[in-house]
């Protein structure tokens, strides 16, 4: 099977990936996990059950590309440029808006420090792969 950018994803394949990605346990495991090969192997198996034949590397590449494109559009919207858009933006927004984001917080002495904030989620104690 081809790997990487060699094979174009159909709209149905992307929808299947988004449906698996939107599951709470998958989102939890993907967030903040650097060594995530096992998670993407699981995602590829789940996609296979849905009739999508992609290997874990293709799933990870598509995940990273979608996430990058989403953040680019989101940043543009936050900067006032509402002309920039992408397919599946609303689906990705529903998935990614609950991830912790690094924000700059002003400290008492006027310096800024990076802090993590998390909206609408509780802290997790689960160990990830």
From TrEMBL:
Gene field: Zscan20_2
Identification of the protein by name: ZSC20 protein
Chain spans, region Disordered: 109-129
Top-rank taxon, per record: Eukaryota
Bias (Polar residues) ranges: 112-129
Pfam families attached to this UniProt entry: Myb_DNA-bind_4 (PF13837)
Domain Myb/SANT-like DNA-binding intervals: 7-95
Organism placement in taxonomy: Eukaryota, Metazoa, Chordata, Craniata, Vertebrata
Xref: InterPro entries: Myb_DNA-bind_4
């Amino acid at each position: 099977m081809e790997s990487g950018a060699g094979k174009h994803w159909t709209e149905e394949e992307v929808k299947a990936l988004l449906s698996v990605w939107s599951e709470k346990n998958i989102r939890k495991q993907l967030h903040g996990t650097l060594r995530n090969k096992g998670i993407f192997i699981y995602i590829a198996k789940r996609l296979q059950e849905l009739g999508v034949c992609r290997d874990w590397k293709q799933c990870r590449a598509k995940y990273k590309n979608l996430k990058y494109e989403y953040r680019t559009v989101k940043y543009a919207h936050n900067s006032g440029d509402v002309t920039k858009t992408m397919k599946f933006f609303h689906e990705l927004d529903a998935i990614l808006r609950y991830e912790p984001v690094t924000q700059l917080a002003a400290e008492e002495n006027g310096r800024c420090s990076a802090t993590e904030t998390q909206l609408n989620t509780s802290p997790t104690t689960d160990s990830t792969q």
